[in-house]
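Holo prediction. Input below; ligand is arginine.
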Amino acid sequence: MNTHTITDPSALLDERFRAAIIAAVPEFDPSRINTSITASRQPKFGDFQCNAAMGIAKRVGKQPREVAAAIVANLDVAGIASPITEADIAGPGFINITLLPEALAASLDALDSPQLGIPIPAQPKTIVVDVCGVNLAKQMHVGHLRSTVLGDAIARLNERAGHRVKRQSHVGDWGLPIAMVVEKLIELEDSGKSTDTITLDTLNTYYKSAQEKCKGEHTAHKAIIKYGSHPKALAECELRIEDADAAMKRAKSRLVALQSGDQRSVAVWQRIYDTTMTECLATCKRLNANITDEHSAGESTYRDELVGIVDDLVSRNIAEEDDGALIVRVDGIKAPCIIRKRDGGFLYATTDLAAIKRRVEKLEGDTVVYSVDSRQALHFKQVFGVARKAGYDLKSDGTQANLVHAAFGTIMGDDGKPFKSRSGGTAKLSDLLDEAVTRANASVAEKNPDMPDSERGPIAEAVAIAAIKYADLSNESIKDYVFNFDRMLAFEGDTGPYLLYALVRISSIFRKANESGIDTKGAMAAPFMLNDPAEKALALAILRYPRTLNGASEAFEPNRLCAFAYDLASSFSSFFDKCPVLHNDDAASQASRLRLCDLAGRVLRDALGTLGIPTVERM
Ligand code: ARG
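Structure of the complex:
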């Protein structure tokens, strides 16, 4: 029996239709039955439709309407839906289903519990979620919005579905680029400058200048040799190359010093680490993402495991030498995975192999899911392929862990190109958040001219964060989307503020009801009366919660829960327009509607909490 049965009418219908199909078309393989019960798009087609007849008819060589009629003749929906006859067969063989109000009420009753109908899994799984993944000496930029917000939502979804979740932020805190910045700070110190109070902004400029410096002008040099130029230009270029080569050499020996635990290098590295992480974790907190210090598992934490991994792959003939480098070939992927460079250095992929091993062996992940940019798709294909080849994905019971790249698309600007700051550089995440807050502040002030600043400030912050997060989460993650403040901050439409506003309205109904002495507590035990189509539609929307949440958590697709939340808020809004709650002389109906409002509010709040979207009491 389906775990959602009691709270989910479509699951109840599924059972009844399955039985009817077995009886109606005995020649059809029962294991292939898909009742395809879906919500009807228009009220004239009832509440649900069964669309199974067409597919079955094709397979057994009969007319679809004939199959539909046979299903109907064998169907028993007593206690769930109004009797179904041939008159309920529409078009080529859709079977329209109208629920009984009392069945709907019974499902709602069952859902109205602290768990809100979400089943507790018999065997919870351990899900490791790769989130955030900032880089040292770099600001969080717009791309980290997605890895943070989507990753945290994937984690929350699975927590809510009853699984054990372990977040891991794969901080880019090791390797040559970081050694360059360490070297830069040490050079500054040696020339007598203090670096004690260095900020992340400054570190970021050092990062960029160190990269520039070490890159030199090899390309320019090649061009000059090829096309010829003034000898002076060539001489200047060669000098710069010499400089760059020297800088690179110093950075490389700094990396060696860092790797071998040289005290001074490590101390400077630690300062860079702390400065970066303090600021990044503050941004995570501001984003209402549950990502803290305990989730940081930077590349540096794998440094002592890389030699062992490479040795293991070599000794088992999984890795082979190729032009001085060590590579692993993976079936079905053209580009081999490089695990050690010619100069002996390890790569991003080597570290990610160590990470998989730790996540499966030590953290006991049944699933390891990566909330990372789709532009890293090849990297993850390679790394997952190598891990499987080497058995690094094997759990203690010998079965394979599930490795998933929950890839996301790029945030675009209005010009259709990857989003940039106004000055054309990569957009700093905290600047974006600030701008959203300024705009939200203006909207809230416009709606509530009398609200004191002290109250408006936190509300504007929450509205802005909700707007940005909802815009990011509500799109199908793999797709690119256009970042547009006006659109995401609108109070109407498929936006974060619209959802918050639905909650605010529900709170305000209860505030007013209590003020006018209505027994709101008593109403929470009132029987549900679902006679108006808008009441029914709201009830049906609420009942989709458990199934949607489970689907979204299993597929790692927060956008499904966003669509649910928007549908619920819209259904609430239609209900509220059509069905008076407070100005209602029928006490029983009033109590039922209050209870429906309360339940809708609790479900919406739970859904938003599961997405990591902050809510407000007023706005
Ligand atoms: N630091 C990386 C970047 O900014 C993201 C890390 C993703 N996670 C991983 N396990 N590779 O691109």
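The radius of gyration is 30 Å. That is the main takeaway for now.
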